[in-house]
Amino acid sequence: MAKKDNIIEDVKKAKNNVTNKVKKVKLIDEFKKFIAKGNVLDLAVGVIIGASFQNLVTSLTNNIISPILGIFGEVDFSEYVVSIGNLHLKYGAFITDIINFIISAFIIFLIVKFMNKLLIRKKEEQIKEEKNKEPVKSEELKVLEEIRNILKENNNSK
């Protein structure tokens, strides 16, 4: 009896091991399908480009905008700090980050606006092309038109 119980336990364990391996394979297959989708790859490219874009905006703010503002008011935002005991709040750096955000948001707005205009123009061109295209007549319609023309000729000849 004990041997039978041990055999049953061994069979259950083997079944669980196989089930777990099948689940892992399915999970890996699902992950491969997910990664292979175009949207995921587009998102990854967008994240990489966005990080590079952020570096450009930061450089623009630090190396061009802040010095230009410094000419008019001798302002260097990065040096603005409030000290409370050992606590140093760098609100000048925060102002710089706000400027970076505004620039990024504005440039993204311009890019989206430009892309929307391109899409609208493309749709308008497609609509114009569809309007200019002569509709393709089916064979049935051609036969019916021939019958109509023959009937008209017969009625006119009477």
Description:
The chain is mainly alpha-helical and 158 residues long. It has a single domain (37-157), classed as Large-conductance mechanosensitive channel, MscL, domain 1 (Non-ribosomal Peptide Synthetase Peptidyl Carrier Protein, Chain A, Orthogonal Bundle). It is 84% helix and 4% strand. The chain has four helices and two strands; from the N terminus they run ααββαα. Strands 1-2 form a two-stranded antiparallel sheet. It is flat.
Broad shape = flat
Q: In total, how many domains does the architecture comprise?
A: 1
Q: Any idea what the CATH superfamily is called?
A: Large-conductance mechanosensitive channel, MscL, domain 1
| Mean of all residue-level pLDDT scores | 80
From the 3D coordinates, which CATH architecture would you assign?
Orthogonal Bundle
Question: How many β-strand stretches?
Answer: 2
Given the helix and strand composition, which structural class is it?
A: mainly alpha
Low-confidence parts lasting 5 or more residues at pLDDT below 50? none
**Biggest sheet: strands side by side, in what order?**
1-2
Gyration radius from CA atoms, angstroms: 36 Å
Helical content, roughly?
Answer: over 70%
Order of helical and strand elements: HHEEHH
Q: State the end-to-end distance.
A: 107 Å
